[in-house]
Write a sequence for this structure.
């Protein structure tokens, strides 16, 4: 398992963080995900043989948020 933390722009409330958490945890290969709007971060634990970081970023951005490098 690999852990990555993304800086996510656009999460302004708890509902936004729940949305990000939900879209990530729905992906195959994601063991856990937790987004926090107050610090603008999303931590994801995933199996990199099943899902890539690019796919995680795409899911966040498809939900209407932006991942900042």
């Amino acid at each position: 398992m690999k852990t990555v933390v993304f800086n996510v722009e656009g999460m302004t409330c708890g509902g936004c963080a729940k949305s990000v958490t939900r879209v990530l945890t729905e992906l195959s290969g994601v063991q856990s995900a937790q987004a926090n709007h107050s610090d603008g971060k999303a931590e994801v634990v995933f199996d990199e043989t099943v899902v890539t970081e690019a796919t995680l970023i795409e899911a966040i951005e498809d939900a209407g948020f932006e991942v900042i490098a």
Notes: The mean pLDDT is 96. The longest helix spans residues 14-25.
